[in-house]
Amino acid sequence: MTYIGLDDIKDGICHTLSIFVEKDAALLDLEVDERALTHQIACYLKEPFSDWDVDCEYNRRGYGTKETSSGPKRPDIIVHHRNKHENRLIIEAKKNGNNTDDDDKKLKEFTKKSGKYGYDFGILLIIPGKNMPFTLRWYNDGKYIFEEHWPIGN
What we know:
alpha+beta; tt1808, chain A; six-stranded mixed beta sheet; two-stranded antiparallel sheet; 3 helices
């Protein structure tokens, strides 16, 4: 198992967002659906996390479905090893201005070390409108830990 620490994840996210903005900034201008944006972001995540599986809308836990106290869940993007309990990163994405309360609860539940999933880190990725920065809210062990802003054109 390859360990990915916070600095490695931050570097990978920075690299991914740079490529996304370089190649797909038009998607932000077109105001496409969140799923179209997260799909492209997940594709670019595969490079910095090449030893891991990167999946979108992944609802499996072994042969069962991912469940939380509020029912079945499908994380927007995860970095993990399939069929193992090696869950490194969960990303929930929201377009700027959309309500994030449910995503906040989901990230807290999925990152609890004592919980079912135990993701090492979670990110609530606020996808900007035109010429606005990305906002990344970071989670660890069931708690919100910090927020940072990543400008477009960085």
